[in-house]
């Protein structure tokens, strides 16, 4: 029985390593030099939409990095101040804007059935349509805690034009300074690439669709084709929902890592990271107890069982388990190198996986206790899962 378990774990890992889009690789990564491959005499309009709620600490450096973009075409930035309780809007308006690129919109209270962030994004898109009625060019969705290198917008547009893509998304560099961040943040990226292997997302023939909300460049005609932001109404995993809509409409996607954008949002404690995971983990599972059970079993087979077999089993089962455990650790090393961390952090992977499993269970418990998803002082008890299927969505102020 133990040997059969060891063989099953080994088969799972063989499938993951060789037949799952090489999820463990560190790339792809867009470099600034990529911008030179396209005809930069054709520089379409780009409108950046930034939803912000209580982002006083990061809003000025984030917006300043966007206003300082080295882009040959027309670039405009729309900040939607999503009813902040701090001075986010005042700080944004106080920024020097010599090229007259910035518009600050004071957001309205979310309409029924909308998640707060998406309602802010929808208002930003409406302002973008008002500013550029012909609907050409691109919209760049980004967060209020991200710093962009001067060449970032040019590089994103170059990628979209060169490869004829409808949507370009990047996983920005995440903060990795505190002990909790070093222990848990690289695994967040690693597990994301396991769920959404970049090679599969980028393959037009594969149904896998994913995106990272920190950087999404989208053709405006594609946004209209999928029905606008209204198509995502109520979604809590809005980035992957958007990617799914675009791919189902025949759009071509790109998802990779960024070396030109970095989040400055800190997660100083394990509790902060727990709350980040628990916020949407059960949404990812479509609020399904059956999928939760399957996910927990999968986490045990993939991450915990090989380690247990390697240290506790005997004979052939131990050897197979040890080999499988070694493969799982090696798969994590490219991600650790990306974060400039020692490969010895891989030894903690079973404990990290246990933490993520517990946070996922906690997400489900929160939902069934009626707490729902809480973010920026708003709580949501139901939502649209990331496959785009509509469920009744209700929101309340926490």
UniProtKB/TrEMBL annotation:
InterPro entries: Glyco_trans_2-like, Glyco_trans_2_hopen-assoc_HpnB, Nucleotide-diphossugar_trans. Keywords: Membrane, Transferase, Transmembrane, Transmembrane helix. It comes from the Bacteria. The keyword Kinase does not apply. The keyword Lipid metabolism does not apply. Pfam families: Glycos_transf_2. The chain crosses the membrane at residues 183-199, 291-313, 319-337, 344-365. Residues 47-226 form the Glycosyltransferase 2-like domain. One of its GO terms (molecular function) is transferase activity. Coiled coil: none annotated. PANTHER family: GLYCOSYLTRANSFERASE, SLR1566 PROTEIN. This is Glycosyl transferase.
